[in-house]
Amino acid sequence: MTTSHHAPPDKYQDIRDAVRALCAEFPDAYHRQADAQRAYPEAFVAALTKAGWMAALIPQEYGGSGLGLTEASVIMEEINRSGGNSGACHGQMYNMGTLLRHGSRAQKELYLPRIARGEWRLQSMGVTEPGTGTDTTKIKTSAVKKGDRYLVNGQKVWISRVQHSDWMILLARTTPLAEVARKSEGMSIFMVDLRQAEKSGMTVRPIPNMVNHETNELFFENLEIPAENLIGQEGQGFRYILDGLNAERTLIAAECIGDGYWFIDRITRYAKERNVFGRPIGQNQGVQFPIAQAYIELEAANLMRWQACALFDAQQSCGAQANMAKYLAAKASWEAANVCLQYHGGFGFACEYDVERKFRETRLYQVAPISTNLIYAYVAEHVLGLPRSF
Ligand SMILES: Cc1cc2nc3c(=O)[nH]c(=O)nc-3n(C[C@H](O)[C@H](O)[C@H](O)COP(=O)(O)OP(=O)(O)OC[C@H]3O[C@@H](n4cnc5c(N)ncnc54)[C@H](O)[C@@H]3O)c2cc1C
Questions:
Q1: How far apart are CA 126 and CA 189, in angstroms?
Q2: Keyword Oxidoreductase, does the record have it (predicted)?
Q3: Do 221 and 254 belong together in one domain?
Q4: Which is the most buried residue in 1, 38, 144, 364, by most CB within 10 A?
């Protein structure tokens, strides 16, 4: 369904039309069934990859389309706006940024063209650990160099798409915390060949969860990684991960914006059609106003998303805008979800309306990939200069 309201076509209309046409081949029933079966939307992701959309940010010299973050964000927005969920595949779009920025020429030539062609999926990034949570510098997973290999031991949690990825970027400590001058030093990132690792050194335990999202606990016991799989310099991995966060946050913001429009479209249509007390429910201001309010807040959040994209594409610092866009968009999509569910009445709870599914999906973005409190902390400390709290 295309949107019935607002905004004249923007300059990304060609991208929108093309992504919408592809998404239209995967209607609500497809995503609903995948959700009910907790099945990976393989055909959907394969079609997006084959059409080149997942390679938007890979430079042309490596076989991608070399688009900016703005265009990439439109792709993500449209996927979510179509009723799908970019969470199944967004890692493929942005995880490669770490390789692009910090990988050697040889690594880029090895991985990027294959990722662009969809032969290899680099959908996973292993950072979070059960005993550490958001306090990433305390991670306990260690990688110890032994000749031409690193030996990895430890544990990760909530690592997404491992079963539908060929490669994972792994953050591990290469120098113990007690031996580094700054806690952000001494961590490194590696490319992990997942199928190889599953054969020896890594155990995957899926985590059943609230949404149709493949995510896992990982256990490492003497996992061997060839030394050439280290990305960039040893000890600098935490900084490399941080470098990728602005793009990730901005793309997630665009996904939330897509969700928000989906909720507003659905409830606007429903409120016009559903007759109770002899009139459409949408004729009651008690119903109209919350929908209008959610729409206004969504539009406002979208402005911050465009600003974050523009700064990023102009290679200007955009940490504040990327974080604020993610915060505002996740909040706006959640409020739109609530309104959409509320004014569908009982039907909001019926799976066949898809509202409850999207409601669950958009709720995640208050928690992952970064929780709301951590955005407040970023803005308080880095934008407002308030004293550091952790
Ligand atoms: C479905 C899903 C997929 C995920 N995929 C991945 C993935 O692919 N790779 C990966 O590495 N991680 C992944 N994660 C992990 C995700 O990034 C974390 O769950 C998230 O960052 C929050 O960390 P935590 O769960 O450890 O919460 P905790 O750090 O334990 O925090 C719990 C709560 O307390 C709050 N809190 C903590 N400290 C403070 C403080 N000082 N001040 C104020 N509030 C505080 C937090 O904001 C949060 O709300 C995923 C998580 C989910 C749920």
A1: 9
A2: yes
A3: no
A4: 364
